[in-house]
């Protein structure tokens, strides 16, 4: 019996290649593209306000936004409703930069292209992500490494998915995540359903 993936809660992409937009063919290329797009969208940004970024025409369907937060605000206040993400109080960033850029990608119909699944599995939601970079210099043209943000076990980052396909009869919903090296990790699904029938998942960062 084939297992169906209910969602892909968090993904992190490694930053190694710098290729033109039209040549984004892997998750590594995509990470380079997302960073470039989002930093261009942050022209004199207001703290705590998400800004949508424009992606190339050949990636129509991919949605990307970026938001700046101070490290102290992230830890002491968190941030509610950053698209599907609920960031609780207590999230820490281990590099101790003063300002962060939080990048939200929704890969839409490109989820399978950049993160193909093994035979017998398919996505029931688009791939979502929450990436963090240093926001000290928003005019930076060099590639920046991902920052390491962590939530506590008792207050994890929550994700409310609004675009969930029905689970086929007889299939088992699972979740999957990828680490910085692209390794795939499967886990069981914990969810609550709200009054609108939307799934709300908890995932430790």
From TrEMBL:
Residues 1-24 form the signal peptide. It comes from Trifolium subterraneum (Subterranean clover). Coiled coil: none annotated. Pfam families: DUF1191 (PF06697). InterPro entries: DUF1191. Keywords: Signal. This is BURP domain-containing protein. The lineage of its organism: Eukaryota, Viridiplantae, Streptophyta, Embryophyta, Tracheophyta. GO terms for cellular component: membrane.
